[in-house]
Amino acid sequence: MVSQESLKRAWEYYKDLSFATETKAGVLDISEEELKDFEAKVKTLDDLRGLVTDTLGQKKAYRLSRIFELILAGSLSVNASDVHLEPQEDAVRLRYRLDGVLTDIIDFDHETYHLLASRVKLISGLKLNITKEAQDGRFSIKIADMEIEIRVSVIPGAYGEGVVMRILNPQSLNVTLEDLGMSPRLLAIMEREITKPHGMILNTGPTGSGKTTTLYSFLKKIYSSEIKMMTIEDPIEYHLKGVSQTQVETDKGYTFLEGLRAALRQDPDVIMVGE
Length: 275
Prior knowledge:
The protein is of the alpha/beta class. Helices cover 36% and strands 25% of the residues. The strands form two sheets. The chain has an eight-stranded mixed β-sheet with strand order 1-2-6-7-8-3-4-5. It has a three-stranded parallel β-sheet with strand order 10-9-11, with helices on one face.
């Protein structure tokens, strides 16, 4: 038996533990108000480094959750495409990929990282007891009505498991063909080629170079109610109005090959294969 006042005090305490809640398996719900407050505090990378350093120095129970949320919120505020957690001999290095270039953020201790890596693996649906094999997983960050998917790759190393989180922000994919930065001559060629009724366009490049963004801009450019467009993706990174999008599930036997076979029976005019 407890008094109502005691319950209120307990609720207030737990309310301060974290500005994010796990709504379901693989989904991290970050408060929009807290994220805006964080973005107001963090204007530069030095601001972010200072905030993470202060949190690392705390001895409170919620320190680990705060560090994880700061790393994610910081990556969103500076528009990072990837978050790298790399164990070294004497420390663990945190880096963001900004405009294609890896940027050092901060180094922290192995003990904190071991707990942080377990937290990342848990929310990504990975096995905690497997540390000698590579694993791939994913989770989502829900902010207001927007859901940002995070791809997680874990690989064993000499000093511990290395973790890379790929941020698939749908806002970064909402780019028109004209905004991609192509030269006028190349833009004219592409506009002509993508409107042809037959043929194939191969779009290649390293990770983070903008392949998916470019393909989506092609689809948005040629979209018309008079044609049927389909995509086969892993995962669906951005929902396009009027486009039939399908996501592969290799663990259930639905691969890119199976998806392509099925798509050809759907009487499509345009097919985009996302990988």
